[in-house]
Amino acid sequence: MFILANDQKFVNIKFHYLETKNRSVSQFEFIQKNEDFEKYQFDPNLKELNTGWKVLTWDEHNHLYDSCTIGRDRKTIDFIKLRDIKLKTCLKTWDLKDDNGNDVVLNSETIDQLYPKVADELLSGFEQITEIKPAELKNLEQAAEAFFQGKKTIDSPPPIVYEFFLSQICRLKLEYVRNMPMPTFVVLLKLAAAWESVTRKWDAELATAGMSKK
Are 173 and 151 found together in one domain? Predict the structure, then answer.
């Protein structure tokens, strides 16, 4: 359903959906499964939309979230603003046509005119491919907590902590780490945290046995 290009910093995603009208009001049903696509592939109401997205780097991801914080403590996220900015920042190309077959210009004003369900489906499809799942992120935080703080329940460490840890373990410059595509950063961080945890446990077990690695 998608092709990665340009060092994994650009992703193409193809969407299929059924467009019907009820009393002149358009209704949209996005196809999520292959079996559903096979069911409707010859339906005249089936539409296809090819889209191109910019994959955020870790640094861009953090700046985006920071721009959407509210409140005195700057810890509350305005998720409505976040999703709006992310959609307008990351969606770069599409082959949408109007009723006369002309290309529809892609810009912020056009995105504002999308049906809410369509905008939500587009962004959700992008996030499913490029972003870590909440459960995975929680596991990552718990692993980082044990290493960085030695506590079981703390707030998630600030981005610079993750950046420094990854740069030290992988021997990379901070600038290079910050410009990694966000999915790549998270995968490497999880591997580095797991490697560090196993290494420390192994060292401790060897020390207990009066041995050391050669």
Answer: yes
